[in-house]
Amino acid sequence: MYELLKSLTDKLDNQYLIFVIIVIIIIAAIFKKQLQVNSKRFLFKLRRLFWYSPKIKELEDHDIFSTFSRITGEVFNMRFYTENEYDSTKSRMCYDFTVQKSKSCQKLMKELVFTKDIEIMSTDKLKKLILSKQTQMHLDYVREIKAFWLSKGIPNEDVDHVIRLFEEFRFPVINSFEHRIGAIFGSSFHPNNFERILAVFDMWSMGIDLLPKDMSTTFETLNGKFKDISYK
Predict the structure, then answer these.
(1) What is the pLDDT of residue 30?
(2) pTM over 0.85
(3) How far apart are alpha carbons 203 and 73 in whole angstroms?
(4) Sequence-distant contacts of 1-7: CB under 8 A, at least 24 apart
(5) Are residues 87 and 182 in the same domain?
(6) Phi-psi region of 114 (alpha: psi -120 to 50; beta: other; left: phi over 0)
(7) Is the pLDDT of residue 169 over 80?
(8) Closest CA to 203 of 109, 101, 119
């Protein structure tokens, strides 16, 4: 900074001009971060004037959301049996679990695509945000389904047992998500934030497709644990 100012004073004779330049440099130093963000916004908008690039908010129409509707319908049509008799409680619990998980995940995915300045967000910050949203999806649906089942008269220890059992069967999928997110953000094949989030959404869609299988495995394992509970 000192060398820059000295160089300016050596080359310029106009004291007023020197003063203005010094003020501009000081302001630029103070508001450096904000100026960087604004310049990114300007360049991003300028680029859109000359060629089209999709906006991240357009991902609200990604087929991941229709996938949620489809798998919810699949689970609704599942029928569970205990000792060759239809177990309505287990069947409804499985469906309610799927509905709540779908709601929680969709809500946070929509929040993600409408995050302010997400197009110009740094790669590391976006990765952190996506991992945070993924963790929050888990916390939210566990909290909601636990409260829902407790209101239906399911004992607390049994609620925890079902959730823990599901998480055990679901672990390979979640673990795969972690690895794939790392690969997506470490790859040159995803040059911008739109491409990165699109890749993450495609990955999550695969996991959602596996949800009915994991739900089925979980509730088949329960045998007749909830058969005599009045679940309305």
Answers:
(1) 65
(2) no
(3) 21
(4) 1/25, 1/29
(5) yes
(6) alpha
(7) yes
(8) 109
Per the CB < 8 A criterion, the answer to whether 41 and 117 are in contact is: yes
d(CA 22, CA 221): 73
pLDDT digit string, tens, across residues 131-168: 999 999 999 999 999 999 999 888 899 999 999 999 99
**Structural tokens at position 42:** 């300007």
Q: Rounded CA gap, 128 and 138, in Å?
A: 16
Q: Which domain holds residue 11?
A: 2-49
8 A C-beta contact, residue 123 and residue 141? no
> Are 89 and 113 part of one and the same domain?
yes
Residues 180 and 90 placed together within one structural domain of the fold: yes
In the numeric block, which tokens belong to residue 196?
């990165």
Q: Of 153, 151, 148, which Cα lies nearest the Cα of 163?
A: 148
